[in-house]
Write a structure and sequence with these properties.
The chain is mainly β and 203 residues long. 5% of the residues lie in helices and 39% in strands. The protein has one domain (16-201): Sandwich (Immunoglobulin-like), CATH 2.60.40. Strands 1, 2, 3, 4, 5, 6, 7, 8, 9, 10, 11 and 12 form a twelve-stranded mixed β-sheet that branches. A hairpin with a 2-residue loop joins strand 3 (58-66) and strand 4. It is globular, with a radius of gyration of 15 Å.
Length: 203
């Protein structure tokens, strides 16, 4: 039976909340016949919020469109503490994806719910990648209804987190997406990226 995203639970919403923004223009080109496309943006240093330590600070968000899916990379100021169970300092987060690049469809972004500047990602979220202390070394992929559709391996190395997602878990989307991310730990969110709007991969 499908399971609802853990971010929908009061426990996870109150204990963290995270977001990342990636914007991608769409076209009818099949990923299998197009060259991979990569878009990267830098996020300001020291733009964290909240008072709890550690202050996980995103320095860059990168999304790559590949023939068989997408790859998301998050870079941080400091070496990452993986989100192992029981470690309150472990990094947790949520990458939110607007697959059809239409803010009028999908659900409201968690990133916008936790940010403190009253800004907007401009996303209508169709899918999310959630990594946290309850999921070990994998990220939960959720759909537009915030139901789990699968799990993907998540790589924590030095200052970087890498998540590879197959097209099948994104409804066989064409790979052109808009995105944003929110990160934090068990005591709350600490940073979002980008600071304004979202990252766009595509035209």
């Amino acid at each position: 039976m499908p399971r609802r995203s853990m971010l929908c639970s009061p426990m996870l919403l109150s204990s963290l909340v995270l977001t990342a923004a990636v914007a991608c223009g769409g076209d009818a080109t099949s990923p299998s016949t197009a060259l991979p496309s990569t878009v990267s943006l830098t996020d300001p240093l020291g733009d964290t919020f909240g008072s709890a330590d550690p202050q996980w600070d995103v320095t860059a968000l990168t999304v790559t469109r590949t023939p068989d899916g997408i790859i998301v990379r998050l870079d941080f100021v400091n070496d990452i503490v993986p989100p192992v169970r029981g470690d309150a300092a472990g990094l947790i987060g949520e990458v939110e994806l607007d697959l059809d690049q239409n803010p009028a469809t999908g659900h409201a972004a968690v990133t916008d719910a936790v940010r403190e500047d009253h800004g907007s990602t401009g996303l209508g979220v169709d899918a999310s990648l959630v990594f946290g202390p309850f999921f070990g070394d994998s990220s939960i992929v959720t759909d537009v209804n915030q139901l789990e559709v699968g799990r993907v391996e998540t790589f924590f190395a030095g200052h970087r987190v890498t998540i590879k997602v197959p097209r099948a878990m994104l409804g066989n989307d064409d790979g052109w997406v808009n995105a944003a991310v929110v990160v934090g730990h068990s005591h709350g969110a600490t940073d979002i990226a980008p600071q304004v709007g979202h990252l766009t991969v595509g035209r």
